[in-house]
Amino acid sequence: MSERFVKERFSWRSLGWLLLYFWFFSCALQLVIVLTGHSGTTGLRDSLLYSLLWLIPAFVFPARTKIISSVLGILLWATSLIALGYYSIYKQEFSQSVMFVMFESNSKEAGEYVSQYFSLKVLAILIFYTVIVGFLWRKVRPVYLPFKYKVTVCTLIAVVLFGAPLYKKMHNEGETLEEASGYLASRMSTTAPWQYIAGYVEYRQQLASMTEMLKQNAALPPLANLKDANGDTPRTLVLVIGESTTSSRMSLYGYGRETTPRLDALRKSDPNLVVFNDVVTSRPYTIEILQQALTFADELQPDLYLTKPSLMNMMKQAGYKTFWITNQQTMTKRNTLLTVFSQQTDEQFYMNNQRTQSARQYDDVVFAPFEKVLADPAEKKFIVVHLLGTHMKYKFRYPEETTKFVGREGIPDGVSDSDVEVYNDYDNAELYNDYVVETLIRTFEKTQPNGFLLYFSDHGEDVYETPPHNVLGRDESAPTRTMYTVPFILWNSPQWQKDHPIDYAPYVNRKYSNAHLLHTWSTLAGLSYDLQEPEKSLVSPAFRESKRLIGDPYGKKALRTFDSLPMTADSR
Ligand SMILES: [Zn+2]
Fold it and tell me: What percent of the chain clears pLDDT 70, i.e. is strictly above it?
């Protein structure tokens, strides 16, 4: 009796080892992610929390601790091993986007990629990981809790993990059970084995809404009387879409710091590079602006993207083979429309399957697929490259060794000392974006193409720029000019320029909104059709300057003009 009593006494040491054992499966990877600066700490927090769930069976049946820890251990080891291996190879966390790419794209190619990158180093990491699991498993001992503590602790874990977040979302924020469950799933998606279940559920949901939107798009009537002035001439046209890159922080547009040395040099040496000086966006958010820029929709007719063909549809109808290369997140609820746009093309390359938008991810991943697509034998090609650009977190957009801007030099006095780092990070991200855009142009040039490349940013970003230098990010309800001013650059190949000897000088200072991009693109590509409005084309002789509307077109009296925005943020 007394021996049994001693044996079943609660031990902090046993609890410690048991906790460490269950934590290890999910938190090891999250710890690496935080320590290597790949992403923030919320993933670590969530994996610490949601691993506590496994304590419940071990507390309830302490006599079975070894069996429970073995069975759960095998499940958690196997699932976390896949996530760890995936991260070791791709430097991306396993997410629902990975599911999408696995199920929806060419899996043979993915397999080739894995065999190419599966190295001894990756194998060593996985073996080392497994050895630690084995060591921790041997340390696992039963944790005996008196009945009332057992009930209290288990209830507490259930409340903290599930009750509290659901209550907060549904009661405090008025969300439905489905929305709140989605939130819970996303928080659990760092923890083995939930990332697969949550990922699969999210993937199915996004796929359903995407399929519905694609079905609607496929049912739209084609553009009437579409004509191609360039006939069957072989050609390649490239559209590069930037991200959060404001033109007022580019030396190409007069910024004091040299953030775009490569494009500056290209402009000096190459007369075929045309820089448009006064282009703004209509909305400072990716999805909201691209559903205008890439379609017939604009601030006054915001729903036309649902009822008229898109730019991708138009190019396909004109006989182009169409490609979409993206470094934006693929399969998130927010990005469904983007994925729909990408699926309107013939071939897609999804390069970013990160779990969070703010994870470390560089745009140089688009180079390889870009070269591959340029070599495609199709006679008429249309290539969209969607960059991650200078999206926050700015520090995660460029490799550390490319850092150029440190300290206060070149920063306005009004920027407080605590904001200097972020201010510099943004300029360094602009510098890396300069490298990416210029490399795309050079890579294109090397193929001696007949065609052009157009680069624009979806919107800008205010990084402590507008006086009094205290605004960070974008906010449509508190707009500043910087959130709207975007680069808009055209590079014509020598062959294309020769066949289309257009003088762009009279056009470069026109006031323009990229909401009307599709019309400019039509003129550049030599396409005409019934819906065409040349007065909305930046490069048409028929262009008419119009009010550059900004704001939420669905909001009540939310529209105003960009040109009415004040120069400072005080009087917003
Ligand atoms: Zn954006």
Answer: 94
